[in-house]
Recover the amino acids of this structure.
């Protein structure tokens, strides 16, 4: 199954969770899925010697996801709850990445949802163990989000480079409009601060009215 579909399924399941064990279970599922996506990115054929950035960041994401899953495993209850989702949970169903850009965007949204949900859970925690599990999960999730953000930028740079190599030319910037004749221009004479700089009179602005080419400038003193 493609990563994007699994991530969307996990986001929906997290939103539907109505009790503490289910919330923690779905948060851990998100962490395991993050680990799996990172591992797939680290194994991409395109991430070879010429482009090691995706492979390196993918490995970092896999490690961050594994750390987050470990933080959430302490209070996720009986691990047999994962059996209904298959061996390894939803992460075990990942067979291909599909479109990497959209998958990373959705994964970033999933991790944001997990963080917000764990904060709410921590605020209402009745035990110190649950509170710290949620806080540790939030911290670990933030690390995952940081790596996903860097991966997203790396993919965008790679796509931009591919377009440039294919002959795509970026449009030129719009021209800067010229000043209309007769528009006043504020000219302020500046100098370095200190005793050697110009006096207050020299720093006073004046308005110059540009006229036709070759005509003398007209200065209108201010003050």
């Amino acid at each position: 199954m493609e990563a994007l579909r699994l991530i969307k399924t996990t986001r929906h399941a997290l939103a539907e969770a109505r009790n503490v064990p289910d919330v923690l279970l779905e948060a851990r599922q998100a962490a395991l899925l993050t680990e799996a996506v990172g591992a797939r990115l680290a194994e991409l054929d395109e991430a070879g010697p010429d482009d090691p950035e995706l492979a390196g960041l993918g490995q970092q994401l896999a490690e961050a996801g594994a750390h987050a899953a470990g933080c959430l495993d302490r209070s996720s209850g009986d691990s047999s709850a994962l059996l209904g989702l298959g061996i390894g949970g939803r992460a075990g169903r990942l067979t291909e990445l599909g479109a990497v850009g959209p998958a990373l965007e959705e994964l970033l949204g999933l991790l944001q949802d997990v963080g917000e949900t764990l904060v709410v859970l921590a605020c209402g925690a009745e035990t110190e163990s649950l509170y710290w599990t949620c806080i540790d999960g939030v911290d670990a999730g933030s690390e995952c989000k940081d790596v996903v953000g860097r991966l997203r930028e790396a993919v965008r740079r790679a796509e931009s480079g591919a377009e440039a190599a294919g002959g795509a030319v970026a449009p030129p910037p719009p021209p800067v409009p010229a000043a209309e004749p007769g528009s006043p221009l504020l000219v302020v004479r500046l100098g370095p601060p200190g005793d050697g700089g110009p006096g207050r009179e020299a720093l006073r602005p004046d308005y110059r009215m540009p006229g036709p080419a070759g005509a003398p400038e007209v200065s209108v003193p201010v003050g």
